[in-house]
Amino acid sequence: MFYWLSSLRLQNKIFFTYGFVFLIMFAIIFGIASLLIDRTFSEQLDKDVEERKTTISNLYRLFVESIRNQVQTTGEDRGVFNAMRTAERGGIRDIPTTDFDVFECGNDEGILVLSNRIDEKHIGYKIHEIAHAETDETFKQGKGTIRERVINLGEEPQLVVEVTQWWDWGFVTGGRSLQKWLEGESLSQPAEHPIFLVRKKDEQEEWIPLNNIAGNRLELKDKWEQQMTVYTAAGKPVEDLVVSLEDIPQQPSTEVPEKDRHSPTYTVVRTDILSTPFFERKQLPFVELIIAYSHDDRILWQDRMRMIILLSVGAGAFLVYISSYLVSRRITRPIAQLQKGVSEIGAGNLTYQLDVRSKGEVGELAEGFNKMAQALMRSLEEHRTAERIAVWRDVARQLAHEVKNPLFPIRLSVENLQAAKDKTEVFDSIFQECTDTIIEEVDRIRGLIDEFHQYARLPVPDRQPVNLNDIVEVVLKLYIKLSQTQKITVEKQLGDLPHLSLDREQMERSVGNIVKNAIEAMPDGGTLTLRTYATPISDKNVSSNTDEQNQSNTISNKGRYISLEVQDTGHGMSEETQKNLFTPDYTTKPYGTGLGMAIVRRIITVHGGEIVVESELKVGTKICITFDEISYLNDTQPALIPLVTKSTPQE
Predict the structure, then answer these.
(1) Given a cut of 80, is residue 80 above it in pLDDT?
(2) Percentage of residues of the chain with pLDDT beyond 70
């Protein structure tokens, strides 16, 4: 992955870096925001739970206090006292009208005398709990408790809050149904929170729904018991369990949009908020409240807040990506121009100038680049001028040396003819010999001048699509007889090559010169091998020590190198010969001009190729010519590639 990133263009690197940093920031911000939202709602839920418990507990205390006050008022009523005395003497038990669900009166011996339930079986019997109530001050103050009592005929026993107060003449008990009070409007419970009253029935818990939502969520009990079993087995606390009803079909609601509906989720809180200081715990039935706090509002607001965050971050991401793209383009545009300038300079266009108007370091770099290109141009011109002068000095010296040699036999032949002009017999005998010598030496001078002329003025290549394999075949036909005469074995190893844009005549001349030299290097026979092949162009980037090995062999889509190798098993070349191989006036042959390999080098150079020489004495020589398929396929004036000679000693 890191190598893939390193291979991207700088603009893409900047763009992806901006994007990657923003994604990390977004993930951090979104994670922190989600945690804060969850924490805020959890804290708010805990606060709501405590407030609700406190509210219900306070309301219950007020409820018990109101019953106590009514019992106090009722017990002081003269009509109640008279009705109790009448019933005690066997008269009619007429109960004064009261607001109590349970109303009972007894005498000072603790015997029940009056009851608002006509089927009360305990009338006339002593109430065990208040048999000795005269000694218990809590009865005089108004003792409160919760009992299971039958209020109406045919109903199951209900939980009733009773308050009993004692007078000198007896006691009065007033009670109200706890379930009716909890179902009333006095608690003002929100409709979305199911509330249950818990009591034991046949040693089993019974959850009595107290509001409409609780009646629609009766499955909460089963889910709660399943969750409690799981938590208990895992050793987790079971005080406040979170129960989700995802497997239960939701009731359709017109108040909540379809897209905002969620699986009902509740925090189930069991709490004893009905206790009062007057309770006798041992005699109380098992009574608790279940408050299932709904998470619907929390989930809805969390989703909406997350959506707002996502939309905000999405808009921010869009702005960041746009800005990063613009910034990366602004940063990399001058660099791209610099890169183009480097390519132009590398291609030999030293007149190229950058049009970068950026300020700061990039602008200074562009200005320095332009100055460098101008300096290179001047230096190259000076170097070319000096090199041209030096070359022509060598050429003139070599030409003078080569021309001087045939002048002596010409002069001698002319002098001999002049001396014998009066001697007919002598003149006739030497005339043919002298004229032949003069013609031979003149031809030699003309050939020498022609060769120098060709070296000095090679024509511009007439490029046509050419296959190197065809060049090899033509050259071998020219030198096949010479190779057979010297008992040389010729081996061809021709690969599948594309066509290149080359001058066929010049390439045949350069390859022929190389083959001729190879044949002449094997006077006693040997093996001449001509091999052509194509190799992919490799990107060898040395950006870091760790990546060098992997990157050095990475093949890019830049085309192929097309190569031609000519290898012989001749006497090889010395270090001095390798050093001066392409020098115009250097030769190891008795009658050589030293221009053959210089012309070969110039032809290959004009075609944008590279020539490499490897040679070892008494082993042989290998000369390799290489062209770039892409760069020179259709070029008419390719850049010059430096020519190298392997195993050449340093000067």
Answers:
(1) yes
(2) 76
